Amino acid sequence: MNGKLDAPILAIALLALSGFANAAEHLIKPGDSPQAALDRCAPGDRLVFLPGIHQHPPGRHRSMLYVDRPVDIELREGAVLKLASGSCRIEAEGEITTDQDAGKKLDDLKIGGQFDLVPPATAGPESYGNRIYTIVIDGEGKDGNPDTFSWGDGNIFETPNKRVPVTGDWQPLSHGVKIAFASKTGHSKGSLWFVSYDGPEAYGIRIGHGTQAKPIENIRIRGKGVIDMNATNNAQPSGLVKNINACVLVHGRVRGVSIEGITMTDTNRSVMCYGEHTGGFLPGGKTGPGESFDAEDISILRTRTINPNGAAYLLGHPSHRGRLSRVKCNQNYMETGKTAIEPNFNLEGYEVIGNVIRSAGQAIHCWRHSAGGVITDNLRVHDNTGKPVVVVNAPRGWQSPEPPLQRNNRNHLSDFPTDRPK
User: Fold this and answer.
1) Where in the chain are all domains bearing CATH 2.160.20?
2) β-strands 177-181, 171-172 pairing
3) Are the C-beta atoms of residues 275 and 233 closer than 8 Å to each other?
4) What is the pLDDT of residues 347-402, one digit of tens each?
5) Of 351, 367, 358, 378, nearest in space to 307 by CA
6) Nearest to 90 by CA among 134, 123, 55
7) Taking a C-beta distance cutoff of 8 angstroms, is the pair 47, 66 a contact?
8) Alpha carbon distances (Å) from 327 to 202, 235, 274, 369
9) Distance between CA atoms of 204 and 217, rounded to whole angstroms?
10) CB count, 10 Å around CB of 208?
11) What residues contact residue 71 under an 8 Å CB cut-off, 6+ apart?
């Protein structure tokens, strides 16, 4: 070493400095369109949400801000990016969820009829709830008799209507909803479906739409501001359907994303990350021939999720089957009513380290196949029932996760180090 930079290194350093020097700063005041501001950005520019309420309906790709280029996004302290009240209302079209059970011999349920709980456009907040039907095969027909099913339209998994024979024709449930099975027999007992009537999906900041051909790279979302999906005043997706609300969504061929410091609230999920695949879905997570659009190198650091009615971080998704790799979800704080951190399908090489979790559901749930995980130094708080910090399993018919490396994950009120002085 002679104390001088080699010419190639010096050239790279000067180029980087030149890029920062030429980067423009775009200030967004409450009432301004964040999408219009981003559309004016050159790669590397900085987008700044100034203090105040930035309230907008869903726009491009169902988001308040769709990102398709490298930018630095800052939500300054006091800035709140909020979904406009009444933007999302219950829709008449239902959606069948089968991902919770891939062990069916037959998957032949259809839905029809006319759901009669779609509110008028002028309806108030009482119209924002959703309705989920649970349908379970509770008997396999023998000696020429049809299979039977049970169903309910209240709490999920509750099916008070029992032993209904399968006719093969349309059969009424409630509120105008009808179902039909293509076959009267041949179903496996315990086969499970959910049917959701709910609101459309919406996102705060979305990076990628799933099948973009070119990678979207080098996005930073940071600051002391808030993303509020305002579920209190909007109909949400049920949480069991393919596309659900998130404050931040990373989707498809995206890499090099950092989400730091921000607070996220009143939503299905705070952050979701997953790839996409064009192949047909096969049971148990397999995918037919097609192109995979993979997400990689995602960091979620020192954020806050305050979401007492929903969940927090979803890493991988069974209905979006591209790969997701090299994800860090570290040093975050969360309060959730449901699962806080969920390493899920097609995830490889991830860290869940140093998080503080207050959850009425699971704290960390490795759910379906993932690999190469490190889960250490996480603290579950405000739970005196002895719930575990980490659960590792899969639904029926799905490949289980590879056991992650686990160390020093503690429930604050029930777990104590074995070497604690007596």
Assistant:
1) 7-86+200-411
2) antiparallel
3) no
4) 999 999 999 999 999 999 999 999 999 999 999 999 999 999 999 999 989 999 99
5) 358
6) 123
7) no
8) 23, 30, 10, 15
9) 19
10) 27
11) 38, 41, 43, 44, 45, 46, 47, 219, 220
Torsions phi, psi of 231, nearest 5? -65, -25
**Burial bucket for residue 25 (CB in 10 Å: 0-12, 13-18, 19+):** exposed
Burial level of 77, CB count in 10 A (0-12/13-18/19+)? exposed
Query: Cα–Cα distances in Å, from 77 out to 29, 67, 125, 213, 264?
Result: 13, 21, 29, 35, 13
Check residue 136 and report its DSSP letter.
E
**Residue 422 CB neighbour total at 10 angstroms:** 2
CA dihedral (17, 23, 29, 34) positive or negative: negative
Dump pLDDT digits (tens) for 227-246.
Answer: 999 999 999 999 999 999 99
Q: Dump the DSSP string for 182-193.
A: S-SS-PPTT-EE
Largest Cα span, the chain:
90
Q: Which CATH number, 1.20.58, 3.90.1570, 3.90.1170, 2.160.20, labels domain 7-86+200-411?
A: 2.160.20
The whole-model pTM stands at: 0.91
Distance CA 212, CA 322 (A): 13
By the 10 Å C-beta count (0-12 exposed, 13-18 middle, 19+ buried), 238 is classed as: buried
Can you list the positions of beta strands (E) in 6-49? 25-28, 46-49
Residue type, 346: N
